[in-house]
Specification:
Length: about 350
């Protein structure tokens, strides 16, 4: 697939993983589960599907050095730092323009850098079908995750009838998207699950450059104009530096996906975890007695449902009479939090000294 490219979005703060994560090293740059980072896993997952020279990474200036270190196997020019934070729609438009400058007829895959997917063969099958669907139709293609519970923290995609696409025979069927539904309350999420035709929005998008440019022209002309400027620029870095900070911050869902003339959805057959908090990490580290999980040697008495994570995996941890805690130790910080407030760790970060953020 020499005319197929991947854009990996590797920005974000990852504040829910403090004290291990910092502004310059968010969760996609951490080795939470083994000796490789989530970004490394995202790159490696594309082996045999998209050539390394066609994989681009978009990050920010604060994290650029660490991203280059982690993704050293990619060409240096394939790693690009945004000059300002402008949400996902401008980021995707920038990535699409960088690809279009190389091949204006290319098909591109947009992937977050911070998701855990272990079934690589199934991932390849789904993405290959999505590439085929995008190539043989003027549609934007999304990947949906079959909901396992009524989660109010995810966006949802309502799937309609099976799509007809001339010129290709998909192993994994695509369905027409009826509409996108933003994060619902718990009761509405429960209705979605019972209805049976909703998927979680995984933030993975596949489309051809001509199709996405056409849709942006129709619905978000500022981003389409920006793409044309990049595609025709003799100094891309200078053009990005001058124009990107002036783009309106907006998500790709609001700017494009909810307005596009045709969107297709293919439901994933692979495992998927967006690793949103320390609670997610606890599912993949050692399970001890009484619901305790740890990546270090652990002794416990009268303690249950605790999550223990240490930067040095040889650190001995002892628990006595404590329940439902998250305990994380790094070289310069220790976090002790109630596991039921895992999502609020990001609020705690705002109160920290700047050198610890």
């Amino acid at each position: 697939m020499t005319n197929t490219y991947a854009l990996i979005l590797a920005g974000g703060s990852g504040t829910r993983f403090w004290p291990l994560s910092r502004d310059a090293r968010p969760k996609q740059l951490l080795d939470l589960f083994d000796d490789t980072t989530l970004l490394n896993q995202t790159i490696d997952r594309l082996t045999g599907l998209i050539p390394k020279e066609n994989i681009l990474i978009l990050t920010n200036q604060l994290q650029e050095e660490a991203v280059r270190e982690v993704a050293s196997e990619l060409p240096a020019e394939n790693i690009f730092a945004e000059p300002a934070k402008r949400d996902t729609a401008p980021a995707v438009a920038l990535g699409a323009a960088l690809i279009a400058a190389r091949d204006p007829e290319a098909t591109m895959v947009v992937l977050p850098a911070d998701q855990l997917i272990q079934a690589v063969d199934s991932f390849h099958s789904i993405i290959a079908d999505a590439i085929s669907a995008a190539t043989f139709s003027e549609a934007l293609v999304t990947i949906g995750i079959k909901p396992t519970w009524a989660c109010p923290s995810y966006g949802y995609v309502e799937r309609g009838q099976k799509a007809t696409i001339t010129g290709t025979n998909l192993t994994n069927p695509a369905h027409e998207v009826v509409r996108f539904r933003e994060k619902p309350d718990a009761a509405l999420a429960e209705q979605f699950i019972k209805q049976g035709n909703f998927a979680w929005n995984a933030g993975m998008f596949i489309w051809s450059i001509p199709t996405v440019l056409k849709e942006l022209t129709a619905h978000t002309p500022q981003l389409a104009d920006f793409m044309h400027e990049i595609m025709n620029s003799s100094d891309i870095k200078a053009t990005v530096a001058a124009q990107f900070p002036d783009l309106t911050p907006i998500s790709i869902d609001y700017a494009l996906m909810e307005k596009a003339s045709r969107v297709l959805n293919i439901e994933a057959t692979f495992d998927w975890d967006d690793v949103g908090s320390w609670l997610s990490v606890s599912k993949y580290i050692k399970q001890e007695a009484n619901g305790n999980t740890t990546n270090s040697p652990l002794v416990q008495i009268d303690s249950q449902n605790n999550i223990v994570f240490t930067k040095s995996k040889d650190t001995q941890v002892a628990l006595l009479g404590v329940d439902d805690l998250i305990i994380v130790q790094t070289e310069d910080s220790i976090l002790v939090a109630n596991r039921h407030q895992a999502d609020d760790i990001k609020k705690l970060v705002n109160a920290l000294p700047d050198h610890l953020k």
